[in-house]
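From the shared-data thread, chain only:
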Amino acid sequence: MNPFFLNIPEEVYLLSINEDGEQHPNFRNKKFDIIISSALLMEMAERHIIDTDLTYLIPDKLEKTGEEIFDTVIDEIISFNDKRPIIDWITHISIHGQYFRDEIITSLVRKSVLKIQDKKTLWFFSTRKYPLQNDQEVKEVRSRLRDLIFSDEIPEVRDLILLSILYHGELLDTVVTTSEKIKYADRISQISKMDFIGQTISKAVDEFSLGDLISEKITDLLKGKTAEEKLQDHVLSLMEKYRIQDESKLPAWLRKGTEQYKKTLEFVEEVGTAEITFNPRTQKYSKLNYGYYSYTGGAGM
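Structure, as tokens:
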């Protein structure tokens, strides 16, 4: 059970938006999925659901939390039932990035921290933003992190985790100015290197960038192929992007030979593209929403 009003992924998301609901430039790309998956694992480590050493994520007390976003990850860990490197889990969870974004936004709206704002343009096209309804929470998070950076106090675990995410994800300017970042560089670096999961983020982001370039090239070659060929090419691009070397480590909806894969193939045939995602909570498919990576920072609900 989370003793805090907000969990770590929610606090990270709040740091990414301004009062008008527009997302910080560094969050307007697919790398944010890496940041969110890391934040999920860090929250689970703080709650002792998982543990980590220098390399591996180790299941600890895999008890359901009652929170959909974490129980989904727990189900994934249980289904694989093996000891895997932290970076493998960060990239694996990132495959479900759109689902986790939806869940975080839904939770923040439900908690009355964000509100939904639709804006109609060109008579019919609607854009959606999620401006702050209550800025008290995000101000409190920024204040905590700034106090930590500017002092010599031993950090609380939660604040250590948040600062580690921002540092390794190159997102420090959401809480400090450029001059402050330079002045307190040693302090920030010292704190950020205390967390094993955090240390893996920068490596995951770098490898994700390479995989993303490969994915774009493969996507250009998908035209004119059958649904199964498109899906297999998409799966291969995901494996490249997320460093998955063994197909058995893919989620069931992308793993050839499973009943869920058959349903995935049917959806690809229906919509004509393999650029899709699967929501494990609703058990529904949808096309990837590239609006996430432009300016809104969220999906429609």
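The first strand starts at residue 50 and ends at 52.
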